Amino acid sequence: MDKIIITGIQFLILQVFNLIAIWHSLTRLNKLRWSLIIPVLTFFGAVFSWFSPILSGILFTAILVGLNYLSLSERTIRILYPLLGLLASLIIFLLINTIFNSQMKLLHVIAFLIGNGVALIIQNKAMQRLADIIFQQRLKRLIFINYLIIIIILLISTVSFGSNSSNPILEAEFIAILLLTILALLVHFFDTVQKIRQENAMRQIQQIENYAQVLEHSYTELRKFKHDYLNVLSASLIFIKNKNFEGLEQYYDEALKIIDTSFAYDDLRINDLQNISLLPLKGLLSYKIIAAYQNNIKIHFECIESVQITTISPVRVVEIVEIILDQAIEYVKNNQGKVDILVTTSAAEYLSLLIRYPLTHDDLIANQTNNLFKTILNTHSVYEHQTLQAIIATENNLELLNKVAEGFLVQELIIKE
């Protein structure tokens, strides 16, 4: 009976901390559902532990992960909190039991309280520190695989050494193996994080190169227009000197047609919108750009190549772009500066929509930058009342890269084609 009670308390602790971890991402209905699910799972998990504590723990954790997946629209590492909570609790238990060699029954409860508290802190810190790459599929898969490897090691060791659980030498060897495995996985994890950030940096460098090409192309068009304009003036003078006004009128009409078709780069570059095939996105950008211009907000838009968006819902694209662009325009309106919008395509079959604007000196502080990213990610869509973070997490073909470079906040939406 004591075993069932202790196991039930452990299950309850894990569920409470899991609910804390996902609370802000739950809808009101899901919060109500969880309040009903927790006592039911606690009871059945405790009863099932009478037959097999190991299988009970594994099954219970898997059920929690599955419920998180169904409850949360955002596909982030928050879903995997039960694995992290269980892992941290088991490690704390092994360390305490090895150091103090205690047979106290409440040791399991204490280990679960400490372990889940540590797990919650680790997860929140990870969400903040990895905010710029947390939505990338490669990182989420790596975290999940690391969890599984450690859980499997714990399972194998528990089954293998179950009959020798009081042997301090075996426990010490197991802890050493576990810690070395965690260390190796951490080294691999941080190496992968560094590689992902380097790849993102290279991708952004490529975008800067594309931007430079856009500027060069614009300058070439401007020189061409200047050349055509001087030619028109020179030819007009000749017609005027010869008093050939009919020829002047005909030449003037033809020259204007040529110039109108060759020069399409005004201050706002509204004509570039014709290169975007997705009508809802084109309409949103045109409305936002013109509205910003009318409110004396500096904004620059460029899209010199024809772009196609077919892999995701147009509503999703509009939701994401509107949230990011509204935040950028509002920030520039309050702090001055200019919003740059650049839409490009890549040979790697992805479309990039980059929005950039300068940050104030106070916001360039690391903590303020993280808070700014967090505010943007938690902004709700006016269409489906989901946060930006939740919208991106539900789309496998989308990635949002966040970066601060040379005093600018750069947000790049990658749409995989």
UniProtKB/TrEMBL annotation:
GO MF: identical protein binding
Transmembrane segments: 5-24, 36-67, 79-100, 106-122, 143-162, 174-193
Keyword entries, A-Z: Membrane, Transmembrane, Transmembrane helix
InterPro entries: HATPase_C_sf
Identification of the protein by name: GHKL domain-containing protein
The organism of origin for this protein: Bombilactobacillus bombi
